[in-house]
Amino acid sequence: MSTDDHDPSHPNGLNGHAKITGEGCIGSNGASTMTAIAVEDQVSGEVLTNNAGVGPAVQHIPQPVLLDANTKSGLHDDGLADISEVWANGESEEADGEGDNNKDNSNNDDDDDEEVNDDDEDNDEEPALKYERFSGAFHDLLKRDSASALAVSNMFLALGSHNGFVHILDLTGQRIKTFKPHTASVIDICFDSTADFIGTASMDGQVVIHSITGTESYVFDMKRPLRSLALEPNFAKRGSRAVVCGGMAGTLVMHEKGWLGHKETVLHSGEGPIWHIQWRGNLIAWANDVGVKIYDTASQTRITYIERQPDSPRPDLFKCTLHWQDDSTLLIAWADMIKVARIRARPRTSTSAASANLPPFLVEITAFFQLDCMIAGVIPLSSVMTDQSLLVPTHTRSASTSSSSTVPAPTSLLVLAYTPADTLFLHEATDDRAMQARKTAERPELRIISRAGEELAVDALSVAGFQSWGCNDYTLVEFGQNDTGKTKGYLVLSPKDVIIVRPRDRKDHITWLVERKRYEEALEQIEIMETEDTETVDATEIGRRYIEHLVSEGEYTKAAKLFSKVCGQDTKRWEDWIFVFAQKQELQAIIPYIPTDTPRLDHLVYEMILAHFLTNDRQALQRTIYEWPKDIYDISAVIVAIQSELDRYVPSAFKSTALLVPVAPDTVILMECLAELYTANRQPAKALPFFIRLRRPNVFELIREHNLFTAVQDQALLLVEFDHELMSKGEGTDPNKRGIAITLLVDHIHSIPIPRVVQQLQSRSRFLFLYLDALFDKDTHLISDFADMLVDLYAEYAPAKLIDFLRASGYYSLEAAYRICTERDLVPEMVFLLGRMGDNKKALHLIIERLGDVNRAIDFAKDQNDDDLWEDLLKYSETRPPFIRGLLENVGAEIDPIRLIRRIKNGLEIPGLKPALIKILQDFNLQISLLEGCQSVLHGDSSDLAKRLHRDQTSGFFITSKAICPICDLPLQDSPSSVLLLFLCRHIVHARHVDCADEFPPPPDPVVASVTLGGRSNRGISNRIAYTAMVRAKLRQGCPVCNREGQRT
């Protein structure tokens, strides 16, 4: 509800254009709707909109209230009359509706069946809340006392009693601390935001603020019974330690701590007792007999006044409840009325004298409705309590239904409802003693009310001794707020009991679904809990029931998907269900979900599955054998079964050592299975024949993995042939390419002896060549016994590699090798062998006659380094111009060009002679130029270094008075008459450290040396030079420091 600024000049307290809006619920059929009432011109009384009505359980009453601070009532005089007309119109419409309903009562019997169906649907609706009694020390504390006030923080629960005690408990109900600050009933308790301080107000007129963790405490005596108090926000962190209290004296007092003690400030007085106080941020809200007011501590002004309904019952019988939903929303519950007030900043206007003193905030009533009960407490319902995902869709119930459990809306209120036993409490002045007698009260109820005024859920509470308690004996508080502001639950306090109210979580939803045999939905909720990483529910029993239902319906595949969740780690349950499926011939449906690790079932189960695959699906058998761990079943038993099946198709399959021809696909699968099982059973030797006969490349991996090299000593030829067959399937395969088999034989010569392999490969010379060649590449000494054989094999299969072998090996027979090369006319190899045998001339003759390669002849002569060989080469070249030119082009240190040129006969035509000679001359000129350049550089560098040495030796350098002698480690200037020797190595030592120090002349007297015969003073340079020359003449060796270090100066 919002209003314009207050105009005192107007007779009804409003300016000429006040706008009032309100909300509520109406409808004779129980459905809730919103009602808007607008009053545009209070002077004329014209009503523009009138759609008011009253619902059966929650009645919306538009309240035209001026929410400025200076207004004391909503509408007066003419304005009140206008609104009364609006209400009258609404009541008349309601009466008309009731009349219509009375006319329809005759038809109610026809609708009985529909009502029964509606009741059945109501029973299937899920409740929104769950309840439990507060345990711990609570009941022991109230055996001789009764509770009167309750406050909850994030850590503690404070309970006040009528005997003046305050009990501090933790949230589990364990008592932490008890003290008695009052002599009468504790009416109100509150914690500060940090739960370090607790404040209490009592009927004895005292306010006590006590530190829970320390000794700090404050006591204020107000002389009159108190009804409520509130601590300022962040009380423990503020130095002012402000507290607001009020009670039967009718004054709202603030106590603030100052330099000279506490300062007392009266914020309001004169309008009856203060019934309730709430402090949030800078706003203080309180209720008195007249209504609710809000005070801004920042501007120190009262910003609004919300009047109490004129026809409301006595405030001392039905208390007012104030609750700050947030910093700008205040919930007001008084008697049977609920108002939601929204505080907002006042819009900026042009500065004037009238608006300068207005408060900085405005308040509008955003919701206003009336219930059919008295309100003992109201709290906004947390979003945690209204999680739509937990609940199934249900139809909306009427707000007048006494017991319902529909889905609460996200924006709703939790109301603690009290229904008076006597509805004539407004007529207390009657003389009838029967009417004056107190009636037995009814059970309190928790209702969920939407912001639209729609009643969503009602639950009656089983409170101990509820017949004796009144509305003011109940208290509703929230507890356990987390960092996101979500409330974990609520507490309902009565004098002898505390009930914990919590939202129904997913676990409760699952239980509700199971009770109605909606197993699939329950399991879906369990999966959601697992994905949310929250505490989950055991799905075993739920799944068991669901599986039984599915099996009875014949849905085996759907049932099998549930086993992992239902059976879990229970092996017996797994086995029982598997045998059930086997009996029903539906084993295939459950096999994909059977566990192999956790849990591990009996080996008979797995063997039964493998037998099923052996009979029905051999590809699945092979896949299962590869995937399953081998230790979960008896491998020997499975081998026997598969071998028996294989013998039916190939009874003599393994008697021959030759490679088999391709067999049927099923037989191949069985052989693959046997090979895998033998390998897993640590019988690789038995698996090897299967791999070879199946032509599987992993046969070599099997040999390496299980170290079967000794087992294949006599199968070298078989392995090489198998490997060659595998390689021959590729396109463009090199026949001399080594395969895996050759590599395996070469890498394990210690397990597979070389002579044994050579003996087996004798019949296949190419395989023998590949084997010996691989051995030679690995180590030239390995083929020492087979060098002659390898020469012949190289000459046949790889002539290009023969020369490298002849050069690298020394184990072959030169004569045999030469004979083989002669037979195959391998001239380069023959030249090499003749050179090694010492027949260089014959070798040179082969090069010249057979090869005609002058460069090779020159290289051969260089390698032999024989002058006679060079002479033969020159003699042979005299009549062969190409050889002469080749020698001229390769002339060097071995051949003197002059010697070669003199051998050229006159008139011999040599093609390219002139360029060859020019090249020789150019090469010599280049050599001479290089030598001269090197000599010039050497002379220059020597001169520079000599000059640098002379400069370094003759230049002076700086020494300090603290310099020490490197021989005796004493200061150099130890006395004025000491003689110091400076060497060219820059070492300075005392003269006494040289060997000939005794032969040195005494140093000249400084005084005498400075006077000449002419009587004039000079520096005595001549005397010093003369003395230095004499000392130098006596020195027979250089620097003693360098001599000691093994150097010479």
UniProtKB/TrEMBL annotation:
InterPro entries: Beta-prop_Vps41, Clathrin_H-chain/VPS_repeat, TPR-like_helical_dom_sf, Vps41, Vps41/Vps8, WD40/YVTN_repeat-like_dom_sf, WD40_repeat_dom_sf, WD40_rpt. Residues 129-392, 411-502 form the Vps41 beta-propeller domain. PROSITE patterns: CHCR. Residues 107-126 have a biased composition (Acidic residues). The keyword Coiled coil does not apply. It is found in: Vacuole. Its main location: other. Residues 91-127 are annotated as: Disordered. GO terms for biological process: cellular response to starvation; endosomal vesicle fusion; macroautophagy; protein targeting to vacuole. GO terms for cellular component: fungal-type vacuole membrane; HOPS complex; late endosome. Keywords: Protein transport, Transport, Vacuole. CHCR repeats lie at residues 742-886. Belongs to the VPS41 family. Required for vacuolar assembly and vacuolar traffic. PANTHER family: VACUOLAR PROTEIN SORTING VPS41, VACUOLAR PROTEIN SORTING-ASSOCIATED PROTEIN 41 HOMOLOG. This is Vacuolar protein sorting-associated protein 41.
